[in-house]
Each structure stands twice: as structure tokens, then as C-alpha cells.
Amino acid sequence: MTGSEGAPYRPMPLPDRVALPDDRALAAARAFRDHMRKRHSIRDFRPDRVPREVIEACIETAGSAPSGANRQPWHFVAIADQAAKVRIRAAAEAEERAFYAGGGGDEWLRALEPIGTGAAKPHLEIAPWLIVVFAERHGVAPDGTRIKNYYVPESVGIATGFLIAALHHAGLSTLTHTPNPMKFLNALCDRPDNEKPVMILAAGRAAENATVPAAAKVKKPLGEILTLRDG
In this predicted structure, which of 142-151, 180-189, 212-221 has the lowest mean pLDDT? Predict the structure, then answer.
């Protein structure tokens, strides 16, 4: 809940204006594009400590994302405790072994072959931080009344994108991990049943010997992902 439910609409002047002239806008867009192109999903992390304040600032960035009716239907559990990470790895690998033993289906497993993934997830212990992303399927009022949230997957997806970009901007590498099913994360993270775990985001600094799948560097060209209708 945001505390604004039922409040009347009250417009206020735009508090921050970041408009740029065309030339500076183009330069800024290209600089950000080039910076984000340096973002890579990795599985080889250094165990070095990353200050909690860095993670907090990145999650504050995620919390600034737009959401349906401003419900902000997300919660992030940031874990540096080694014992908790060991438990998460064990539970995640149990699900992954079933997936790679055939539960994922032949087509899905073939699609993953160029990425080189498997059931072993040592990065879940090695990365200094695991950030578990939860989607709040519905809110709960202080009296226990159920409160409807809107566009939950879309809102949480946008916030997660903000988070990944913020972590990259802070010089950290990430890996998204989505074991299926993920219900075990509610108990491990002590989160209520109205929240659905959607992702584990491993975050930290890349190891000196870090690698990425060559296939992951093949991105669709602009002409395949953009249709312009500019009159």
C-alpha cells in the first residue's frame, strides 16, 4: 500500500525537469546505450564484499519505477548472509535438476544449449548479494482486507529493469535466475503468501576469469526490433 488509496487527485508542478536540447539528448542517449551494451550476465563472481549502501541505493532506484495505479507491487529481499545463500542454492538446484532431467521439455533445453546453463548454481553462494524479487499479487490493508493491484507483472518487470540498470551503473554484474517453481523462496525469505517470487538476481563484481556465452552477444539489429511511423 502507498497510503494514497482513496485520496483525491491533486496535481502538483513537475518537481524535476530533465529535458535536453536535441544535440545533448542524442549524445546522452548514445552514451547510455553504449554503457548498457557493456552489461553482461555472468556466472563467475568475486566473493568480495559489496557495501550494503550500494545495494540499498540500487533498490531505491527500482522503487522509483512506474506502476499500475502507483500500487508499487514489489518487494526486494537482499541477502548477504552466507548460510541463507547456501540454503537458497540447495533449494534452487533441487528444482533445476528436475528441470534439466527432462522437466523443462526438449525444445526449451535445446534453446538453452548455446547459453551453456546447467543444474549447478555455485554463483548463488559465491556472489556477495542475492536479491530476490517478489511480486505482490494483491495488497493487504491493516484490517486484513484484500486490496487489488493492477498490472503487477508489467510493473515488477519495469522495476527489475531499473534495478539491473542501477546495479550495472554502480559497476556490478548480475545474473537473473528463475527456478521453477519458486515457492520455496517465500519460506526462505519469510515473505507472505500474497507475494509471488519471480526472480533471484545475483549481484557482485565479475571474477577475473569471468566468461559469457558467445551466443549471448548476438543481439537483434535495430531494424528487427523497431518499426518507425514518424509521418
Answer: 180-189
DSSP bridge partners of 136: 195
Q: How sure is the predictor about 34, in pLDDT bands with cuts at 50, 70 and 90?
A: very high
pLDDT at 127 over 70: yes
Q: pLDDT > 70: what percent of the chain?
A: 98
| Helix 152-169 / helix 22-36 crossing angle, nearest 10 deg | 90
- Predicted TM-score (pTM) of the model is 0.94
Distance CA 109, CA 63 (A): 34
**Candidate CATH numbers 3.40.710.10, 3.90.78.10, 2.40.50.140, 3.40.109.10; the one for domain 42-206:** 3.40.109.10
Residue ranges covered by each domain of the chain? 42-206
Distance CA 152, CA 210 (A): 34
Mean pLDDT of 195-217: 96
